[in-house]
Design a protein that fits this description.
Blueprint (H helix, E strand, L loop, with lengths): L12 H7 L4 E2 L1 H12 L2 H5 L4 H4 L4 H19 L4 E2 L1 H28 L6 E2 L2 H4 L3 H5 L6 H4 L5 E8 L12 E5 L18 E6 L12 E9 L13 E9 L1
Parallel strand pairs: 1-2, 3-4, 6-8
Antiparallel strand pairs: 4-5, 4-7, 5-6, 7-8
Helix pairs in contact: 2-5, 2-6, 5-6
Length: 241
């Protein structure tokens, strides 16, 4: 009875290189997906003013640019990189949030002012540098609005209302996406407005943006009395949160 011997060939590193080829996930695809997800802030800021959500539109725009760059890189060097689904998902999210955010923001801006009210902002109340040098602290165009119905958006200054619910008077501060909730002495007179709701409407203390409408009053003598005495006041007959 004969036995046949079998010779085992050595396992070389070249075999591993031929059978296993790793491709790295392109870092741009991961970054594009992250930007796409973060672009949801467009929808969160859309109910606010365009000054808040327009600058944020750069996030989905950059996200789409990074997505296109990653897709091109992955397709051109497909033997080295993977991550095509991530780049595509990032592109889709950035595009959807950009379009829906801008569309929703424009819709809110166009439809939010009730009939009979004129839109202004806290920036409207601010005198130009030239006017301040000439000691014109209330712009003439604002003085012309005294006694007229205006519409303005802003936030309740924390602690300015005597109660937390059923509020009918409070201090409204500007909505330019900057924090005005610090030391009251550092809040400029044109960045605040005393609000007194004159009808049966009431609001609750919230950090959300408020839409207020009513008769604008100007109290110029308060300019010399300090930040605790608002120069602008609103006898409000419209309030929306």
């Amino acid at each position: 009875m004969s036995m046949t011997s079998t010779t085992l060939e050595p396992y070389s590193d070249s075999d591993t290189e031929e059978t296993i080829h790793y491709r790295a996930i392109h870092s741009g695809a991961i970054f594009a997906l992250a930007l796409g997800v973060f672009s949801v802030v467009m929808l969160l800021l859309a109910p606010g003013s365009p000054n808040a959500w327009l600058p944020v539109a750069v996030i989905p725009i950059v996200g789409m640019c990074v997505s296109f760059w990653s897709l091109r890189k992955i397709r051109r060097e497909h033997d080295q990189y993977t991550g095509l689904p991530l780049a595509v998902a990032g592109l889709a999210l950035s595009f959807v949030f950009l379009v829906t955010g801008v569309g929703y923001g424009c819709y809110v801006y166009i439809t939010e002012v009730p009939d009979g009210y004129q839109r202004i902002s806290f920036e409207t109340l601010r005198p130009t540098d030239q006017q301040q040098r000439a000691n014109v602290l209330v712009p003439p165009e604002v003085q012309a609005l005294a006694g007229k119905r205006i519409f303005i958006k802003g936030y309740i200054r924390p602690g300015s209302a005597p109660v937390r619910t059923g509020i009918d008077r409070f201090l409204l501060v500007r909505d330019n996406n900057q924090c005005c909730f610090g030391d009251l002495s550092k809040v400029k007179y044109f960045d605040q407005m005393a609000v007194q709701i004159t009808n049966s409407q009431r609001i609750d203390d919230t950090l959300q943006i408020l839409r207020m409408g009513g008769i604008l009053e100007i109290i110029p003598e308060n300019l010399a009395r300090g930040p605790g005495y608002p120069v602008f006041a609103l006898r409000a007959d419209y309030a929306a949160q």
